[in-house]
Amino acid sequence: MDSMLFAEKLKKLRKEKKLTQRELAEKLDISYTTAKNLETKKDAAFALRTETAKELLHFFDCDFEYLFGKQQQPRKDISSAATITDTVVKRRGENDA
Questions:
Q1: Residue of 8, 10, 16, 2 whose CA lies nearest to 30
Q2: What's the burial of 79, exposed, middle or buried (CB within 10 Å: 0-12/13-18/19+)?
Q3: CA dihedral 84, 36, 4, 52 (to 10 degrees)
Q4: 18 phi and psi, to 5 degrees?
Q5: How is residue 73 annotated by DSSP?
Q6: What would the pLDDT profile of 20-69 be if each residue is shown by its tens digit?
C-alpha cells in the first residue's frame, strides 16, 4: 500500500468530521483557498504557519507523525505535538540560514 500524503490524510480526516473545505477553513480561521490548497497542492503543508499546523493536530486529535509523516494510522496522543512542530519549524529555519 502506498503511503498516504498529507493532502490525502487531511481530506480523510475532514470528511470523517463531515466538514466541507469551507467549514474547515472557518473553524481553523484560515482562508477557503488555503484549506482547498492543503488538500490539492503537493507541497502545501510546507507553507503552513506553525500555529495552523498545531491547530490541525488538535482539531483532528491526531499526532504529528500521522498527519505530516509516514505513519499510516493516527494515534490519539498529541501531548508532544506542539513540541515536535516547533522543532521541525526551527530546524527548517536553520537549514535556510
A1: 10
A2: exposed
A3: 10
A4: 55, 45
A5: S
A6: 999 999 999 999 999 999 998 877 778 888 899 999 999 999 888 888 88
